[in-house]
């Protein structure tokens, strides 16, 4: 897989694995701050207690977010999780952010890695998003196409776009960490339409 180097220019949470979908969903592997991408039930149309986690979850279930997979290499082994908390932070320097729970199975790899992979998933990759969101799944098993990219970061096949980023900060935020990273390489040339996370499920764009 080619990995063009970019000039130094360039959570949202999702799923049931705490490292992946954590928009305030609470779960061992969720990876985002306040959102409801963890598939956990939340109040729909009911009145949530002001200032409660339920209020935050129920509001973010109405927020459509893009779906990404974050990867890292740790101890010679690949790690990764689905995230819907991905955000662009700055163009100069090219910074992005996402969040991850410190109880996530992927947290040790993210904590110890200097470089991470960020993959934007297409609507054809719902199964991949679910795999990387599922606790205990063999995420880099035979069914997952990937190769080592710049700085040894695992890069997934068939995504819409990817970046390799250098971690510049890990900011405490409750039981999560906000990861801020600078893009150092990438490729935006994948084909297809983006995968979205909304109301607790993966969705395609509608015309």
TrEMBL record:
<dbReference type="InterPro" id="IPR012349">
    <property type="entry name" value="Split_barrel_FMN-bd"/>
</dbReference>
<feature type="compositionally biased region" description="Low complexity">
    <location>
        <begin position="1"/>
        <end position="16"/>
    </location>
</feature>
<dbReference type="GO" id="GO:0036382">
    <property type="term" value="F:flavin reductase (NADH) activity"/>
</dbReference>
<dbReference type="GO" id="GO:0010181">
    <property type="term" value="F:FMN binding"/>
</dbReference>
<dbReference type="InterPro" id="IPR050268">
    <property type="entry name" value="NADH-dep_flavin_reductase"/>
</dbReference>
<dbReference type="Pfam" id="PF01613">
    <property type="entry name" value="Flavin_Reduct"/>
</dbReference>
<keyword id="KW-0560">Oxidoreductase</keyword>
<dbReference type="InterPro" id="IPR002563">
    <property type="entry name" value="Flavin_Rdtase-like_dom"/>
</dbReference>
<dbReference type="GO" id="GO:0042602">
    <property type="term" value="F:riboflavin reductase (NADPH) activity"/>
</dbReference>
<protein>
    <submittedName>
        <fullName>Flavin-dependent monooxygenase, reductase subunit HsaB</fullName>
        <ecNumber>1.5.1.36</ecNumber>
    </submittedName>
</protein>
<keyword id="KW-0503">Monooxygenase</keyword>
<dbReference type="GO" id="GO:0004497">
    <property type="term" value="F:monooxygenase activity"/>
</dbReference>
<feature type="region of interest" description="Disordered">
    <location>
        <begin position="1"/>
        <end position="53"/>
    </location>
</feature>
<feature type="compositionally biased region" description="Low complexity">
    <location>
        <begin position="24"/>
        <end position="41"/>
    </location>
</feature>
<dbReference type="GO" id="GO:0006208">
    <property type="term" value="P:pyrimidine nucleobase catabolic process"/>
</dbReference>
């Amino acid at each position: 897989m080619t990995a063009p180097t970019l000039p130094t220019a360039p959570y949202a949470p999702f799923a049931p694995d705490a490292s992946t979908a954590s928009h305030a969903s609470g779960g061992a592997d969720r990876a985002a701050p306040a959102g409801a991408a963890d598939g956990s039930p939340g109040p729909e149309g009911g009145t949530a207690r002001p200032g409660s986690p339920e209020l935050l979850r129920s509001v973010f279930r109405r927020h459509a977010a893009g779906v990404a997979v974050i990867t890292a290499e740790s101890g010679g082994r690949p790690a990764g999780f689905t995230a819907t908390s991905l955000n662009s932070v700055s163009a100069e320097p090219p910074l992005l952010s996402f969040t991850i729970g410190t109880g996530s199975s992927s947290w040790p790899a993210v904590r110890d890695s200097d470089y991470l992979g960020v993959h934007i998933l297409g609507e054809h990759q719902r199964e991949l998003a679910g795999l990387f969101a599922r606790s205990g799944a063999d995420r880099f098993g035979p069914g997952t196409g990937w190769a080592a990219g710049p700085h040894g970061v695992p890069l997934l096949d068939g995504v819409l776009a990817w970046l390799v980023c250098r971690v510049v900060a890990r900011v405490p935020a409750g039981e999560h960490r906000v990861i801020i990273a600078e893009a150092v390489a990438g490729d935006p040339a994948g084909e297809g339409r983006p995968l979205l996370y909304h109301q607790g499920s993966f969705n395609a764009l509608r015309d």
